[in-house]
Amino acid sequence: xxxxxxxxxxxxxxxxxxxxxxxxxxxIDPGEPFAxxxxxxxxxxxxxxxxxxxxxxxxxVANVAxxxxxxxxxxxxxxxxxxxxxxxxxxxxxxxxxxAYLDPGKLGVDRWVALIGAHHAYxxxxxxxxxxxxITVDALNSxxxxxxxxxxxxxxxxxxxxxxxTHDLPLAGEAFHESLARETAAAIASxxxxxAAGLVERCYRxxxxxxxxEPRLLLTGGDAPTIAPLLEMPFESRxxxxxxxxxxxxxLR
Length: 253
Known about the structure:
By secondary structure, the protein is of the alpha/beta class. It contains 8 helices and 13 strands. The chain has helices at residues 38-41, 44-50, 67-81, 109-121, 155-165, 184-211, 224-227, 241-252, and strands spanning 7-13, 17-24, 27-30, 34-35, 58-63, 86-87, 93-94, 97-98, 126-131, 134-140, 146-153, 216-220, 236-237. The longest helix has 28 residues, at 184-211. The protein starts with 6 loop residues before the first strand and ends with a helix.
């Protein structure tokens, strides 16, 4: 039974960036994201983020950054709060969502938790596009059945693969003014962003066909604001979607 005074530190540990928030009374107060490597290289960041708050009732975590990062977090929470974090994992089904993976545990836990958050926010068909180190797109029908998903390199990985695999190409510029660019850095920026937008639009159309109706498109991840203006269908930004899913798992467990 959840006590109204309980507070939950929700942590979404990505490959590059860690997002977090403190939830109380069903609402999430998001904190400032930090580089995931801070768990190993700069634990003072965690002190600055978390020790000025009251100790949480629980620490609930979705982690895709590996066991070494997980061990650093366990050590920190036990040292300062005498708390062991709860690491969630992907399951065959749970919280109204049915995992489509042949081996359900292989679905990235961040994707699983985001689908739970999406399903409980919007009971109809949804399509979740997450723009992080990798770009993932997953679809659910109105019954919460996962229709599958895709994984592609994120914008920075696409940039780096071009630079490392070719001769004398510059890093992509930040400016993006037109689809058909007239200098190389802008052409790389345009090409990678349009590739990401095109992937989402193609997955969205397939999800609509399989669901029998147009899904609600939810965008999350650090590069979502960069891709959003290129999309040709309605969307909603949900930057804390994984944290929303973690809170759903806490409240309904």
